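Q: Hi! First time doing this. I have a protein sequence and I read that you can turn it into a structure. Is that right? Here it is:
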Amino acid sequence: MAEKKVERASLKKINAQNKKEYKKFCDEYIEFLTQSRTPTEGVEQVIKRAKALGYKEWTPKATGKGFYIINEDGTNAAIVKLGTIKITDGLNIMAAHLDSPCLTAKINPIREKPEGIALDCYPYGGIFAHQWFDTPVDVIGYCIKAGKNIKFEIPGMISDSTIHLSGAERTQKKYKEAFEAESLDVFIGFKDKKEFLTYMKKESGIEEKDFARSMLTVVPKTTPYMISQHYLAGFGQDDKVCSFAQMKALADAKIKRTAITLFFDREEIGSTGYNGANSKFLEHVIDVIAQINKMELTDVQIRRIFAKSKMISADVDVAYNSNDVPFSQEESASKFGDGLVMDRLNGGANQSYGNNVPIHITDKYMELFKKHKIQFKVSAIPPKVNSGGGGTIAMYFAHRGISVADMGIPVLNMHGKNSIVFLPDFYQMIKGYTVFFESVL
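A: Yes, that's right. Below is the predicted 3D structure, encoded as C-alpha cells:
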C-alpha cells in the first residue's frame, strides 16, 4: 500500500522572493515570544514595537497616523491606525489575547513544608495537571505598594511524588486523585518563612502583607526553540502568535478604513473582569477615535458603527495530530500547512457558547483570500461531535453587533507548556491579516 503523501501547502508559498521576509518575521516573533511570558510583559512588548513604528500614546491632542492606549493596570492595549474613510462607515478591528494557561499564586501563598518554602498556587485556565509536575518554573511577581510598581522574579520547581514510594498506589488511582491540582505548589528553596521574607525585603522591599497586593504568575522556565527548519516550540503561543501577527499586519497594511488592534487578558478564564474582552475597552478606544475626529457619538451611532464594521478574533486552532486522532476528525480539522484557518463553528457540546460565522461572511473572506493568494482553510472546533471544544473572545463582540470571525493557525500541544506552530502558516497568517486590514468588505 502506497504511503499517504503529506502536503504542506503553506510551505510551498515560501519562495526565493519572500524567503528573507519570512525569516525576518520569524526572528522577530521568537524575540517577542521570549519576552512576553505574562500579559503585562506582552503589553510592554506591544508598546515597545508601536513606539518604534512612530506611534505615540494617546492624548486629547493626538494627531498623526495613529496612537496606542494602555489600560490602567497595563494588561490591555490597543493600537489604532487612522484611515481616510469616515469611522461612521465602519472600522476594521482585530483582537487577540496575551494570557496563556499557567499557574497563579493564592492570595496568602507562603507555605512552610518539610523540604522548605513553597508558594501555594491555583491552575489558571485549561491545563492537564500532570504536565506541570516535575517542572522548573519562574515566578513572575507584580506588586503595587503605596502606588509604586515593583516587579520581581523567583526561580522555582514544581516537584512530584517519588516513584520508589508512591508508584504502586498512584498507578491504581483515577486521574484527578493521582494528579491533584491542589498539589501544584512551587518550591522556591528557602528553609523557612523568616529566611524567605528577609530575602524579599532586602531584594524588593516586599513584606508578608504585601503579597495581598501582588499578582504572582508561574510560567515554565523555558525559551522558544526550533524543531527542524520550520517548526517552533515555546510556551504561550496560544495566543501570542496571533497577538504578534496582528500587530505586524497593522504595521504593514496600507489602510483605507481606520484599523484597530486590541490585546486582552483573561481569555483563558472566560474573558470576564476589567481587563477581559467582555469589558468596555473597545468602546473606550472608539470614544478616543471620535474625540480625535471632533465627534461626539451617541449609543445609537456606536451601534451603527459596530454593524458596519468587520472584525477578526485572532486565535489559534488545534492542529490535527496523532495523539488526538480518537477525539478529532481529519475532514473538519486543520493541519500544519493549512495556513490561515477560520473556525467557522466553535464552542462546547452541541456548539454551545460558541461563535458561528454566517455563510455570507465566510464567502467574503474566502473570496478575499483567494484573490490575494493567501493559503486559507475553513475549519471547526471541535471537529468531532461533543469531543471537548472551546470558545474565544469572538462571542463578546458578536453580542455588540459586530460581524466577527475566528482566524488563526493550527497549533500542536495547545495549552501544553511547549506548544508547536508551523512557521510557514504563521507567515500566511500575517499576510492574511494584512489583506484584511487593507480591505473594505
